[in-house]
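Hi V.,

Quick status before I head out on leave. The structure for the redesign project is tokenized and pasted below; the design run finished overnight.
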């Protein structure tokens, strides 16, 4: 943004700026005769396409000597004002009155005001020379009040001293792109945090904040880990939106795992990070070169970086290998299912996200199923059963709530019976990502625990698995570090949906034919196989 002499665009520290609401993001002031069908029209539509709420007076401006109260209200209801200062701007008493009221809003409502010097010299605006001098000569001939004209002159001087944009030596298209980009950068921190429907999110963010210690000058890497669908990304997003304005650079890299698996994905992620440093159209030949550039350009910047869904150590090595890559006060937040990735000196702070408590779970489910935080009275008990089935997992609660919405009581009962036999495919798909990341041996141990040992003593399970030739201790530890297993007082516990997912995998691998299953865990299935001689006894895995 070009900087002219004098003050800043607004007193943004004024408390009114954070408390008031606005109906428009931008009020556009311009001289229609000069720019309505050209530059201003292009700017207006570019702003609208970018999502800004823009007020533009689409009628001819010269409709009277005094601007309307409605127009004054529109100015006051706008967060920003753009003043397009063109050669004939000062010839319009209407524009000059608009400008007066815009500066009044700047002083009293902390409105941010940005001039665009369109084919005029800022100093000519400041000192009312050239076309601006001619305009005031005409106002004098029309016997305008001297005090009124003095006020207009003062307004032009003041607005010319604000930080804005000069179209000199650049194309209109480039200027429009620059204005849109820089205004979006200023608007984004002012947007309200999106927490609608995020049950219990404030409490979860508060749990994380002591680890973040925003404001301290050290560089911190903070890991957020937990089961798939537990809400890691949601928490990171809320933290990002809450604090991003306090950093020089902020970047949220979504779905690092999925993007990196694509051809050239690692370089794509590095380029996305560098784009927040205004480094565009830079060809990064390989990830090694990308690492050097990130380290070089971020080492003196206060950076807030979110690496979402990290699944391999290479992701950290390529995007945030060391605290030395970033300037004082930087924060790197990593969301992952894999605690083992957070080990070591790189990530000194780790936070495990817990599932929702029963009250929060019921609120979230009801929000999706009924559009409110309480269930229908006749569906209360069924709602509680479904919430118990979901085990406090936000992904499951949201997915199931949406799928049950609008159905009759009879349909609820049928759907619940089906769920107990066959998990929801969307929930299954998300949970299975963790299974697919395991080695063959780890998958075998996982499936054995899912089918036979959920809720059993860790010591007992270890002995059984070791008797079958497995390195059980490291295998169980790996499942714990990948959020697939927990230990409570020597009891290994697997989330019910994770257990159901494991058993579903066994069934699918056998093409649903019971005689081909690698594991049998119900008396009914075991009896069926034995009575009908569906498989030889040596192919049946151990069971209790």
């Amino acid at each position: 943004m070009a900087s002219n002499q004098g003050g800043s665009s607004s007193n943004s520290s004024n408390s009114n700026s954070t408390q008031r609401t606005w109906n428009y993001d931008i009020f556009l002031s311009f001289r229609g005769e000069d720019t309505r069908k050209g530059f201003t029209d292009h700017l207006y539509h570019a702003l609208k396409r970018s999502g800004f709420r823009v007020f533009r007076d689409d009628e001819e401006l010269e409709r009277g000597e005094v601007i309307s109260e409605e127009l004054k209200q529109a100015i006051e209801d706008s967060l920003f004002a753009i003043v397009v200062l063109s050669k004939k701007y000062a010839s319009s008493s209407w524009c000059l009155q608009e400008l007066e009221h815009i500066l009044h809003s700047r002083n009293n409502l902390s409105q941010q005001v940005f001039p665009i010097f369109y084919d005029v010299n800022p100093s000519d605006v400041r000192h009312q020379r050239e076309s601006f001098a001619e305009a005031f000569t005409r106002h004098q001939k029309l016997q305008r009040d001297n005090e009124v004209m003095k006020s207009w002159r003062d307004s032009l001087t003041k607005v010319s001293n604000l930080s804005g944009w000069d179209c000199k030596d650049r194309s209109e298209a480039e200027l429009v792109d620059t204005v849109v980009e820089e205004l979006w950068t200023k608007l984004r921190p002012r947007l309200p945090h999106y927490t609608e429907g995020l049950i219990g999110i404030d409490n979860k963010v508060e749990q994380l904040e002591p680890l973040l210690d925003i404001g301290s000058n050290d560089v911190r890497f903070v890991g957020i880990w937990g089961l798939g669908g537990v809400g890691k990304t949601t928490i990171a997003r809320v933290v990002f939106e809450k604090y991003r304005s306090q950093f020089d650079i902020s970047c949220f890299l979504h779905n690092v795992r999925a993007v990196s698996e694509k051809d050239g994905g690692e370089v794509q992620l590095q380029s996305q990070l560098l784009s927040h440093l205004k480094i565009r159209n830079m060809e990064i030949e390989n990830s090694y070169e990308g690492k050097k550039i990130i380290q070089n350009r971020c080492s003196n910047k206060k950076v807030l970086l979110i690496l979402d869904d990290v699944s391999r150590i290479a992701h950290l090595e390529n995007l945030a290998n060391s605290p030395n890559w970033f300037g004082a006060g930087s924060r790197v937040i990593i969301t992952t299912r894999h605690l083992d990735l957070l080990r070591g000196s790189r990530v000194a702070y780790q936070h495990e996200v817990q599932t929702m408590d029963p009250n929060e779970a019921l609120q979230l489910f009801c929000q999706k199923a009924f559009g409110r935080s309480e269930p229908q009275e006749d569906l209360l008990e069924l709602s509680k059963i479904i919430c118990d089935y979901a085990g406090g997992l936000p992904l499951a609660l949201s997915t199931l709530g949406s799928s049950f919405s609008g159905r009759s009581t009879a349909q609820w009962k049928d759907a619940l019976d089906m769920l107990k036999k066959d998990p929801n495919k969307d929930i299954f798909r998300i949970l299975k990502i963790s299974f697919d990341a395991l080695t063959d041996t780890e998958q075998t141990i996982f499936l054995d625990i899912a089918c036979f040992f959920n809720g059993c003593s860790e010591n007992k399970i270890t002995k059984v698995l070791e008797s079958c030739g497995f390195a059980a201790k490291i295998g169980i530890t790996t499942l714990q570090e990948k959020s697939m297993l927990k230990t409570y007082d020597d009891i290994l516990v697997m989330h019910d949906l994770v257990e159901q997912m494991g058993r579903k995998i066994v069934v699918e691998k056998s093409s649903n034919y019971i005689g081909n299953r690698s594991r049998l865990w119900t008396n009914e299935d075991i009896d069926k196989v034995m009575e009908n001689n569906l498989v030889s006894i040596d192919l049946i895995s151990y069971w209790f």
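Above is the designed sequence. The chain has four domains: 15-190, 201-352, 358-421, 428-539.

G. will cover questions while I'm gone.

Best,
W.
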